[in-house]
Amino acid sequence: MSEIVCGVSKKEKAPHTHKKRVSAALQKGNHLKIDKKIGKRKSVLIDGELELLKFALLRLEPDEGYQEKLKGDELGIILLSGRVKIDVLDKAFVLGPRKDVFSDKAWGLYLPGNLEWGAKALEKTELALCYAPGPDKGEVKLITPNELIVHERGKDHFQRRVMDIMVSQVDARHLLIGETFNYPGQWSSYPPHRHDQHNPPEQYRLEEFYLYKLKPEQGFGIQRIYNDERTLDKALVVENNDVVIFKQGYHPVVAAPGYQLYYLWVLAGPVRIMKVIDDPRHSWVHNI
After folding, report:
1. Which domains can be identified in the chain, with CATH numbers?
2. At 153, is the pLDDT very low, low, confident or very high (cuts 50, 70, 90)?
């Protein structure tokens, strides 16, 4: 067992009915590679596939705007590229510039539930919009590149860089958000780990999704998803802008040689603690 990163909310207790809904959703399926087209403006990619999380990409041309009223959801806005001004509660926040996910560090903006917000692109912009049920009140929080927590993890052929964006930085109810960068030919989420059972303090159940990007863009990676019993054991080819959701199982990923692989990771569960279980067959690699 290993603890990856711990972001603990002050609200650690969840209603029993809430936990039951999460459990039911996790049992509906094992994994899913989202098969939805990404277009102009807002593309909703996850809405109903998971119990707590919803996800959309928002692409804006220079001077193009967008307005939204949150209805019971907290929202983590992650700048993937560009520069944007976001207005909320009579305040203006500028995120960026960020050339792309590989060239510059992330900017983020956390919004609690039931707020109205608007965006205006100052240049061509792509935003990741990450939703989960949220509090009615809370602090709107801008996360700048200087506030990211950077981890260099692994060794040998599983070295990677992990950046926490909305873990300890915000007091969210559910959302945990960050980015991982695989070097060419390298593995991450390795040794394989899972977080699909509620067994505190060793493990807390969290649903999750990844948004992948590759450099150069024609690259690919391999995402494996499996469980101890091998009733689930799949390998998925992941390419630029693919999205995969994880309801159960271990989920290591490798970048093809010559290509950098990035993924935005977003998690949510009934308790906002990120603590996972390693696959005991592979945990020995910690001692390499």
Report:
1. 16-287 (2.60.120.10)
2. very high
